[in-house]
Amino acid sequence: MRPLLPLALHLWRRRIGSLALGILLSVLVLGAGIALLGLSGWFITAAGAAGLAGAGLIFDVFRPSAGVRFLALGRAATRYGERLATHDATLKVLADLRVDLLHAMLRRPVRQLMALRGSEQLQQVTADVDALDGLALRLLMPFGAAIAVLSLSGVMMWFMVGSATTTWILTSFLVGTLLSFLVTARRARRPSRLAHRAMWALRMRLIDLLRGQIDLVLSGRLEETRGKVLAAGARLQAAQALLDKIDRWAAFLIGTATTLAATGVLVLAGRAALEGEIAPQFVALGLFATLALTELAIPLARGLSELGKMTDAAGRLQPMLAADQPEEPQQGHARPQVAEAGAPALRFRSVTQQIGDRLLFGNLSFDVASGETVALIAASGAGKSTLLDLAAGLIPCRSGDILLHGIASDKWPETERFSQIGYLTQRTSLFAGSIADNLRIGCPDATTDDLLRVIETVGLGNVLCGRAGLSTRLAEAGRGLSGGESRRLALARLLLRKPGVLLLDEVTEGLDEPMAQHVLAGIRTTLPQAAILLAAHRPAEIEFADRIVQLV
Amino acid sequence: MRPAYGMSLTASLLVLPQAYAVALLLGSLVEGGGTLRLVLTCAAIFLLLGIARQAAEQMSGRLAFRAGQAVIHDLRTGLIDRQIRQNPLDRNRSASAQLATLAGPGLDQLLAWFFRYRLAALRVSVIPLIILVVLLPISWTTTIILLVSGPLIPLFMALIGFAARDASEKQLAETLSLNSEVLEWLNTAPDLRLLTATDRVAATFAGTATRLRAKTFSVLKIAFLSSSVLELFAAIGVAMVAVYVGFSLLGTFHIGAWGKVLSVTEGVFILLMAPEFFQPLRDLAGAWHDKANAATIADTLDRMEWASASAILGDGRKCAAMPGPVTIAATDLVLARAGQQRLNFPDFFITAGERIALVGPSGSGKTTLLSLIAGLQVPSSGCITVCGHDLSDETADAWRRRLAYVGQTPHLFQASLRANIGLADPVPDATRVAQAIIDARTSEVLAALPRADQTRLGERGAGVSGGEARRLTLARAFYARADILLADEPTANLDDATAIAIIDTLNELSRRGTTMIIATHDPRLIAHMHRSIMLGSAP
What we know:
Number of helices of chain A: 21
Number of strands of chain B: 10
Structural class of chain A: alpha/beta
Strand order of the largest sheet of chain A: 6-9-10-3-11
Radius of gyration of chain A: 35 Å
Distance between the termini of chain B: 59 Å
Helix content of chain B: 55-70%
Structural class of chain B: alpha/beta
Helix content of chain A: 55-70%
Largest interface: A-B, 148 and 154 residues
Shape of chain B: elongated
Oligomer: heterodimer
Largest sheet of chain A: 5 strands, parallel
C-alpha cells in the first residue's frame, strides 16, 4: 500500500474536481438504487397491510409509486452521467501519468537513456503504467462512494428502522470490508510481485531462447532451456493461483458481510415489529435497502483484487516519478558569460580514463581549434567513443580537464553545452513522423530552405526525390530509410543546429567511398568555423582530417 | 469446467429459497401470526443459504480459474514447443519480442474469459428462464412484465456487445497509441537530450494526449448511451413489477394471479426475484470485453498456426556424440520453399580435416547449405549423410555434438561470459573457459569487461561489439572441442585488424584438425582454405 498512496496523491491532486464529481455521481446512483429497493419493499408491505386492513381505498398509492418510477428513471439517467464522469476522470489521469513519466524519464542521465534504448525494460515501464489505469475507476471512486453511501443510508435507517439494526448493518458491513481489505493489502503484494517477476522471466527467457535458438540447438541445450522457460510459466501460474485465492477470500468476506447485515435486519427489526415497536413495512425497507448494499460490495471486491498488482507497479513507478533529478549538479552557474578570449574551442588537458583496472588512455592532451578537423585513431574498443562521450560531458572526467571555449565542460549547464556541441553518437535514432519533423526536432525555427539545403549536404536529395520530399513519412523508430540514410538524416539534424564543436562517431558508416567523401566535404562547407573531432575508421575520414591523434 | 458450471448455477439458484424465507417472514409479520421462533428460523435459513451461496460462487470462480489455467498452460507449452523447434532461418517467423508477449501476457488474457465470461454466459441462458418458470404459477402478469422488459434478450445482447466492444476497444486503442508514443520518445531519448529537445517533446506529447482523450471521450459518450438502455430497461422492469404488486396487494385490481388474491409473501417474493432476473444480464455486460480480448488472442494463435514453417531435425537435447571419423556427403540436395527461389546444391563429399570455402553470389544458398548440414532445416529432396549415417530426426542431435556454428549475427545470452562460452555445458568448467578464451585470442575482450568472465552479457548486461561477439562465439567452438566448424561470413563487416584476428583464430582451430566449412566472400579467408564449393551454378 505504501507506494500506492503517494502516487494516487500525486496524480489526483490536479484532478480533484473530476474525482469528486465521479464520486458524487456514483453516490447518487448507488443511493438511488438503495432508495428504489427500500421504497419498493416498504410500498409492497405497506400496501399488503392496508389491503388486509380493508383500508386499500384510503392508502396513498400515488406518492410512493411515483417515487418508485422517479427513482427508476432517475437512476438510469444518473448512471449515464456517472459513467461519463468517472471515465473522463480516468482518461485524464491515464494521460497525466504517461506525460509525467515521459517527463521524468527524459531527465535521466544520457548514458542511462542510451542503455535503455530499445530494451525490454521500457516495455516493462509501460506495462506498469497500464496496471495503474484502474486506480481511480476501480479503487478510489468505489471506495469513496461506498463510504459516502454507507454513512448516508446509515443516517436514514437510524430514523426509520431503528438504531440497533442500523448499528448492526454498518458494523457487519465495515468489519467485512475491512477484513477483506486487510487480507488483500497484507497478502496480495508478495504474490503480485512474484507473478510480475515470473512474467518478466518468462518473456526474457523466451526472447533469449528464440534469438539464440541456433546456438542452443547446436549445443544440445534447447530442451533444457525450454524447461527453464516453462518453469517460469509454472511459477507465474502458481503466483496467479495464490492471488486468485486471496481475491476469492476477499470477495467471500465482503459477500458474507452483506448477508450477515441482512440477517441482522431480519432478526432485530423482525423482533421489534413483533413487539409492535415498528411497523412491518420498515422491516421490509431496512431489508431491501441492505440487500441493495450488495451493489457496493461487488465493485469493491473487484477493485481489491487489483490492489496487489497496483501496489507492486506503483512501487516501481513511484521512484521513477519521484527521482525527477537533472543529470549533474548544476552548481548554480548560469551560462558562462564570456568565453576565455583566444581559447581553443575544445581542449583536453592531461585526460586519463580507466575502465576498471584497464587504462584506456593516459595523460592525453590536445586542442581542437575552430575551423580545424582532428581525427582520432585507435583499434576498436580502445576508447574513441569514450573520449567523445567525455568531450560531450556524458561521463564525468575523473582525471584531467576538458575545456569548452576555455571553461570546464562540466561547468556548462546542459542546455548551453549541447547548444555548443553537436554530437553524432554511434547509435542515433529517428522517430515516427515526416522527414521535416525529424529535422526540426532539434531546430524548430528552421525554414524549408534550410531543410532542403542540409538534405543536399548529406546527399539525401536523391533519396527523397522519388518520394514525398520533406513530408515523406517514417514509420516507428524511423523505419523506412536504410541504415546509411538514417545516419545521414541524423547528421543533417545535427548540422541544422550549427554547433561550434562537432563530435562525430563513425560518421560515414554504411556509405560507399564517393558518398563518404561528399558527406565529409559537405560538413566542412556547411560549418566552416566548427571545431570537428571525429572517431575515424576508414581512409576517407583520415584524409579529411587536418590532424591526427593516435590513442594508445 | 463442469463442476464450475454446476457450482455457479447452484449459487444463483440458492437465491430462490433464500428469497422465499424472507418473503415468508415479512408476510407473517404483516398478516399476523408471526412468532419469534418463525423469525429466527427464517433468518437462520437466510443466513445459511447466503453463506452457502457465497461459498459456491467463489468456489465456482476458483474452479473455472483453475480450469482456465490448465488450458492456458497447454496452449503456452504448445506455442513455445512449436516456436522453438521452428526452422530458425524462416522468414515468416514472428519477431521474438512479439511472440514472448503472446506467450506471456497475451495468453493470460484468456483467464478472465474463463472465470468471468463463460460463467456469466451460462447464467444468462439458465437463470432468467428458471425465474420466469417459478413466477408463472404465482402471477402471470409479472412474467409478462419481465418478458416484455427483458425479453428480447438477443437484442439486449447485441446492444451490450456493440456498446461494450466499442467502449473497451476505444479505450484500449487510446492506451496502446499513448504507450507506443511514450516508447517512441523513450527510444529516442538520448538524441532528444543531445538536441535539447526534451521540453518541446514533453509539451507536444501532453498536447497529443489531450487531443486523443477528447476523441476517445466523444466515442465513449455514444457507447455508454446504448449500454444505459440496458440499465433503463432493468430499472423500469423492477419498478413496474413493484407497482403492479403494490396495487394487487391493495386490492385495487385482481388480475394476473390466476384469479387468486396475491398474498404479501408472494408479493415480496416477486419483488425479490425481479432484480435477480436482470442480474445475469448485467454480469454478462460487465464481462463482455473479456470475450472480445479472448477472440483477438485466439485469432492471433490461429494465424500463427497457419504461418508455422518447417521444423528443425531432432529436438536439441543433450546426448552422446556420433562416433566415427568425419565425413559429410550430399547427394541431389534441393530446397524449394513457397515464394522463394528454388535452390539446387552441387553434390559434395567432405572428409576429416578439410577446409572448405562455400562461395557464390548472395542468394545462392550459402547460409542455407550450412543450416542443412547442421540439421536446422530439412531439404525438400536429396539427402545428407554424416559419418555414414543419414541425417534425420534420430541422428541430428548426436551429429550436432560434433559441430560448432558461428552465425552472421551471433547471439550472446543474458548470462555471464563464462556461461556464454561454456554453452555446451549447463555448468561450464572455469579452467576450460579460460583456456578457450586464450585459444580464441579473445583475452583483450575479457580484459575490457568489468567483472571478467563473470560479467553479465546481453540486454541488461555489458555490451560487446559485433566483431567481439563473433570472436566470443569462436571461443565457444574451442570450449566445445567441436571437430567440425560451420561459419557464416565470419569476417564480413569488420575492420581489418579484427578480421585478421579472426582468420588467425580459425587457423589455430584448423591446426587442431578441425574440419571447416566456411561461407565467405573474403579472398583473405578463401586463401587459407583447401578448396571451394561453388554454389549458384548447379542447374
